[in-house]
Amino acid sequence: MRHLLQVEIERLEVARRIERERDIVFPETTVIIRDIQKLHAAICAIENTPDDELGSSTERGVDGSADELLDDLYGSEQA
Questions:
Q1: Its pTM surpasses 0.85
Q2: Phi then psi dihedrals of residue 51, to 5 deg
Q3: How many other CB atoms are found less than 10 A from the CB of residue 4?
Q4: Which region holds residue 59: left if phi is over 0, alpha if psi is between -120 and 50, else beta?
Q5: What are the extents of the domains in the chain?
Q6: How far apart are CA 8 and CA 68, in angstroms?
Q7: Which residues, other chains included, contact 62 with Cβ-Cβ below 8 Å and sequence gap of 6+?
Q8: Model confidence over 7-62: pLDDT tens digits?
Q9: d(CA 69, CA 59)
């Protein structure tokens, strides 16, 4: 899931760059954002599950939240 999240983040960065360059908003960008939010929520749900239910090999440690990610990507434009 982490790999998919990273792919979606990269897609969002490219989509936002194209939107800025062309001065247009693509509806598909919203779909990417929703995918990021869903993946982030799923990863957080796994991280909040007790270790005895997941096993010791579970990867943990997503930094930041979906809101922080979106602030990073959009924050400089909102000012």
A1: no
A2: -55, -35
A3: 14
A4: beta
A5: 2-54+61-69
A6: 15
A7: 2, 5, 40, 43, 44, 47
A8: 999 999 999 999 999 999 999 999 999 999 999 999 998 888 765 554 443 343 44
A9: 20
Q: Is 11 exposed, middle or buried (0-12, 13-18, 19+ CB in 10 A)?
A: middle
Contact 32, 12 (CB under 8 A): yes
Locate 58 and state its tokens.
């579970």
For 69, the token pair is 């990610």
Look up residue 21 and give its amino acid.
Answer: E
- Residue type at position 72: D
- Token pair, residue 56, equals 């010791």
Q: How far apart are CA 40 and CA 71, in angstroms?
A: 15
CB 33 within 8 A of CB 70: yes
